[in-house]
């Protein structure tokens, strides 16, 4: 699977067993400079998506799509009238490149590690669960009856 290419070798263990998956969803808006509802979906069997999403009115038919010799991407989305989110993601990937995106992600993970260390030194806060990637879950510690006063 090529998704490992986007990460770093130290994160590969998170994808252990991915070869047995039928699909894989990635929220591109997290680290790929895209809009909130941009998501990548890889499917082992594209036909499982194409059939339920197909929209085949007479005015969209043409010789090329009828011949089935090309991929008709109109069948790979929910509706023809929705925004083309894939274009922005494609431009991000082309303009930044894999190495710059890796560097960007590693930078965020490094900042999260630093933030986690700072929280560990603060007597008012605690890290609730161990950090994964760049997500640090923090909670205020109970200081006497300070919570009651709030």
UniProtKB/TrEMBL annotation:
Entry keywords, A to Z: Decarboxylase, Lyase, Pyridoxal phosphate
Keyword Chloroplast: no
Cofactor names: pyridoxal 5'-phosphate
A matching Pfam family: Pyridoxal_deC
Superkingdom, taxonomy of origin: Eukaryota
This protein's record includes keyword Lyase: yes
Any one Gene Ontology molecular-function term assigned to this protein's record: carboxy-lyase activity
Family: Belongs to the group II decarboxylase family.
PANTHER family cross-referenced by the UniProt entry: GROUP II PYRIDOXAL-5-PHOSPHATE DECARBOXYLASE, TYROSINE DECARBOXYLASE
Record's protein name: Uncharacterized protein
Protein source organism: Ilex paraguariensis (yerba mate)
């Amino acid at each position: 699977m090529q998704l490992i290419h986007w990460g770093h070798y130290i994160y590969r263990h998170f994808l252990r067993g991915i070869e047995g998956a039928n699909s894989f969803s990635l929220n591109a808006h997290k680290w790929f400079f895209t809009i909130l509802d941009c998501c990548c979906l890889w499917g082992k069997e594209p036909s499982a998506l194409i059939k339920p999403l197909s929209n085949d009115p007479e005015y969209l038919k043409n010789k090329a799509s009828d011949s089935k010799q090309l991929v008709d991407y109109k069948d790979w989305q929910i509706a023809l009238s929705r925004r083309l989110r894939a274009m922005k993601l494609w431009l991000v990937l082309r303009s930044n490149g894999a190495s710059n995106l890796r560097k960007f992600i590693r930078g965020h993970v490094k900042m999260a590690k630093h933030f986690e260390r700072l929280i560990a030194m603060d007597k008012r806060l605690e890290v609730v669960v161990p950090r994964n990637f760049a997500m640090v879950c923090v909670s205020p510690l109970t200081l006497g009856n300070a919570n009651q006063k709030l």
